Amino acid sequence: MGQWERFLEPYKQAVDELKIKLKGMRAQFATEIEHAPIEFVTGRVKPLASIYDKSLEKGVPFEPGEELANELPDIAGLRIMCQFVDDIGTVVESIRQRKDMRVVEERDYISKVKPSGYRSYHMIIEYPVQTIHGERAIFAEIQIRTLAMNFWASIEHSLNYKYKGDFPEEIKKRLQSAAEAAFSLDEEMSQIRDEIQEAQRFFSEYRGEQRDDVRKPEEGGGNDEVFNPVERG
Ligand SMILES: Nc1nc2c(ncn2[C@@H]2O[C@H](COP(=O)(O)OP(=O)(O)OP(=O)(O)O)[C@@H](O)[C@H]2O)c(=O)[nH]1
Ligand SMILES: Nc1ncnc2c1ncn2[C@@H]1O[C@H](COP(=O)(O)OP(=O)(O)OP(=O)(O)O)[C@@H](O)[C@H]1O
């Protein structure tokens, strides 16, 4: 086994384990609450070519070892996609509460959007991997974003590959405005959701009142004529 393969093996293991754990979190949310905050989860080990580019950018020697591991905390990367912006906070809080990983850094690129237009919530965690040589703590990056933020970031990422980060001014502006359009979509969807939830609350309260009124005749009050016209035929 080559030295890079040996160096990257625990990262691969961490990505596999974390994918299972975060998907487990998704399944648990889905059984316990009406609206599950996690839509889907992905993960990857940073490609070697990308590790190389990043090491040049950060001025770190391109050598497998501690210095590289500390300077590039996203060699193991997970991504959690949510339907609504509010879901992100729920997911972040669940990750903070976990006992099998330790959050070492958080970056909120949602309230502090990046100049490119990029939005996401980032967490760097320390995660213990069990190896045949004992326990090894490694860093992993978890990006949490909405589907709309992900749509924008995926397209911008592929265009970035073509332009190598050096976008013509016109394209830069259009990407920034596309990012704002994606965020408006998120805000509109959140508003629609809030209104639907409010309507649902109103109807369940109204039905509750109905039930109270239907019960009332047995208690000597109310008017079931209004609420049970069909039964009374
Ligand atoms: N598509 C896209 N992804 C981004 C952008 N900015 C950050 N990201 C993603 O977020 C990850 C981490 O970005 P940052 O938190 O800025 O970290 P960094 O690139 O190491 O930058 P520094 O720590 O500031 O040197 C990147 O590896 C990308 O996956 C962006 O403008 N567009
Ligand atoms: N935390 C993550 N979880 C899941 N996938 C990711 C994560 N970070 C990046 N990716 C994806 O992995 C692929 C390759 O990653 P790469 O490391 O080259 O991207 P990057 O992290 O966005 O780049 P950069 O090194 O410039 O910061 C891309 O499709 C990217 O979108």
UniProtKB/TrEMBL annotation:
Residues 43-167 form the RelA/SpoT domain. Belongs to the RelA/SpoT family. Its EC number is 2.7.6.5. Pathway: Purine metabolism; ppGpp biosynthesis; ppGpp from GTP: step 1/2. One of its GO terms (biological process) is guanosine tetraphosphate biosynthetic process. Keywords: ATP-binding, GTP-binding, Kinase, Nucleotide-binding, Transferase. Residues 207-219 have a biased composition (Basic and acidic residues). Homotetramer. Pfam families: RelA_SpoT (PF04607). PANTHER family: GTP PYROPHOSPHOKINASE YJBM. GO terms for molecular function: ATP binding; GTP binding; GTP diphosphokinase activity; kinase activity. This is GTP diphosphokinase. Residues 207-233 are annotated as: Disordered.
